[in-house]
Amino acid sequence: MTRKKITAALVGNPNSGKTTIFNNVTGGRQHVGNYPGVTVEKKEGYKNLGDKEFAIIDLPGTYSLTAYSQEEVVTRNFIVNDKPDVVIDILDASNLERNLYLAIQLLELEHPLLLALNMVDVAEDIGVKINDSKLSQCLNGTPVVRTIGVRNEGTDAMLLAAAEASDNKQSNGFKLDYGSDVEEAIKKLEPLLVALHNEIKFPVRWLALKLLENDANIKQSLAKLSNSDSVVNECDKIRIELSHKIGEDVELFVAGQRYQFVGKVYQQIADVRDAHAITTSDKIDKVLTNRLFGLPIFFGLMWVVFNLVFTIGDVPSGWIEDAFGKLGELIGSVMSDGPLKSLVVDGIIGGVGGVLTFVPGIILLFLAISILEDTGYMARAAFIMDRMMRKFGLHGKSFIPLLLGFGCSVPAIMGSRMLENPRDRMITILVSPLMSCSAKLPVYTVLIAAFFDPSVAGNVLFSIYILGIVLLMIMASIFRKTLFKGESEPFVMELPPYRVPTLKSIILHMWERSSLYLKKAGTIILAASILMWFLTNYPSEVEYSKDYDALAVQAEETYTRQVGEDVLAPLNIEDIEQNEQLTALVGEIQDANAEFDEAAAELEEDSAEYAELETAKTEKMQQFETDNPELYASAAKYVELTASLEEEKTHLENEQTGEKLEKSYSGQLGKFVEPVIQPLGFDWRVGVSLVAGVTAKEVVLSTMGTIYSLGETDENSKSLKHALAQDPNLNPLVAYSLMVFVLIYSPCLAALAVMKRETNSWKWPAFSLVYGTALAWVVTFIVYQGGKLLGFGS
């Protein structure tokens, strides 16, 4: 069956439920990109319904179609230039009067339009009943449908109505009467603009109105056309004359006329039972936005979120870690030794696999943020934080992009576009990287797991997040008083009613953001892991300070001689396999030792559990001796000598690997920066990881994994956290200092690239890289040296 293709553009005010409807209608059939030339996100989804195939565009939320933000310009340009078959305006029925302002502007674009009254259940709960037919009648027969987006009710009917509306390619003739003076000015302008209409596709009456409003974007577009100077000059003349006639700015007058019209329409269509009734949202707000309780509740919620991420996320992370370990062993067992095996096992699986281990924690973080957003609490959090952020030179709206920074600096920097004031935007962009993004979380969790007791792990992680927020406030205040002097814009933001989020919407939000992390793991991090493998493995020919092969042979010869003298000679045999009872006893003792090592691996040596295991092992050995009085001493000696040989060989291999790594390209790079980072407690290996981390913060971890795994080639390899814990150069103070440095220093390459695009200059990314790294050094120096003075780190 050939389906009729219909392109529908979803438009609406922020918090009107537009994106919820988009997600419910399109499900997983979505594509996310950017509009050409700007950084506004473009979301497109698809839906088949009957004999119709819908391509649905989720345009950015906007309150009007003026040119004060990229979102407004993108929305009106898309409708006019891309010509969707129908525009669907999602209206918040519980706040209809304000939402109708955008609907009037959409009607003036003379495009097929459908009005979707969303959240009608919320409107009725607060005593507002809307007369749909009357609303349609007031707007020249514009079709109206009802939806409840969170329950996905009415969306199919909305799409069918949109398909019907799309059949009518002509405007419904709606014209708002702006009064005789304005109408006269429009009539003067229209003949001048008709000739330009073919090149600039907006409706002539709408163009005339925008020129009277002195719309900068439209004037710029006209200025690019040939022979338009005379038209623009005449328009300016008419606008100035009109302004004198009406005695005020034309834009304000036109907006006032629209609001008056909307007010009259609303009075006709809305039956408000009690305008002063206290709603459920009002009651909840009395607690959550309370002047005394608001901030403690907010910080309490954040604390719960981070502890949930750390504790619950740790379980599936362990499963993934085990799976990648087994994958590495499997691939390593079927590949012959050589550079390719090392690249696949150590470079790719060890690097990228180590980063993917932390996907569960990141998904949980985004899950929590999605719930806070969809319930409506996030807007309250911005309102609560405005009181505090304004003291440090930040706008309350800055809270939202900064909160996105907990996930990734890239959307945080892009989200700063919601700030109209350029100074507010620049400050928000420069301090966004100080938030602990999801890429830093894996570094924190590994270091915390390696060096801190589980009982304080959540508190340590929480302190790092708080430190980032405190530094952000300080730097924002400094930037406001130095680079970007001036007051921030007053806080104006709509607080949506509280809602119960849908599972589908939460999962889609969570997936959108988590997938960005996965894409980075599959691209940037993979490339960086391969680069780091090369730097840590080459040059392949290294001149060692010792002959490790000869030392290994010597150890083998010593072992053979001692076994012969202490084990074989007393029993008058040449090999232990000549005595089956001895061979079996050796195996039992080795199994008992292995069981003890495995069970005691996570225990402290002074713990009661460790003592119990040790007692059980001793009793087992005594039982072996009782059962085999003549052979036990020989078997125990053989096990002891074998273990000593393995320990000596492992020591030689690790020493050789360490010397090779030290003389590799990465080692040379690490040694180059070591004098600078030594006062922070870091050695050259940490230096290599930090340099690599500029590509992406996750790479700090994968680089550590690559460096530390080089000395671990047998099947009993320790995990990265165990390797870190055993490094004598690291301790809890150094680990905490490293977390502080990773928190603050240079943004990753992707964030720097987005920063360049948002500021249209390389100057600010370069400034961010330098100031971030310098600030990281100073703060980490204070933390490390201060900690040593207080007696930590010994």
From TrEMBL:
Q: Give the UniProt keywords, A-Z.
A: Cell inner membrane, Cell membrane, Coiled coil, GTP-binding, Ion transport, Iron, Iron transport, Magnesium, Membrane, Metal-binding, Nucleotide-binding, Transmembrane, Transmembrane helix, Transport
Q: Where does Mg(2+) bind?
A: N23, T26, G27
Any keyword Coiled coil? Answer: yes
InterPro entries noted in UniProt? Fe2_transport_prot-B (IPR003373), Fe2_transport_prot_B_C (IPR011640), FeoB_Cyto (IPR041069), FeoB_GTPase (IPR050860), G_FEOB_dom (IPR030389), Gate_dom (IPR011642), GTP-bd (IPR006073), P-loop_NTPase (IPR027417)
Q: From the record, what ranges are coiled-coil?
A: 582-655
Q: Is Transmembrane helix tagged as a keyword? A: yes
Q: What is its main location?
A: membrane
Membrane topology per the entry is: Multi-pass membrane protein
Q: Mind naming one GO cellular-component term on file for this protein?
A: plasma membrane
Where does the source fall among the domains of life?
Bacteria
Cell compartment(s), UniProt: Cell inner membrane; Cell membrane
Domain named FeoB-type G: residues: 5-168
UniProt: GTP binding residues: 12-19, 37-41, 58-61, 118-121
GO molecular function ontology, one term from the record: GTP binding
Which Pfam families does the annotation name? FeoB_C, FeoB_Cyto, FeoB_N, Gate
Q: Which family does it belong to?
A: Belongs to the TRAFAC class TrmE-Era-EngA-EngB-Septin-like GTPase superfamily. FeoB GTPase (TC 9.A.8) family.
Question: Do you know which PANTHER family this protein is assigned to?
Answer: FE(2+) TRANSPORTER FEOB, FERROUS IRON TRANSPORT PROTEIN B
Function of this protein? Probable transporter of a GTP-driven Fe(2+) uptake system.
Q: What is this protein called?
A: Ferrous iron transport protein B
Q: Which organism is it from?
A: Pelosinus fermentans B4
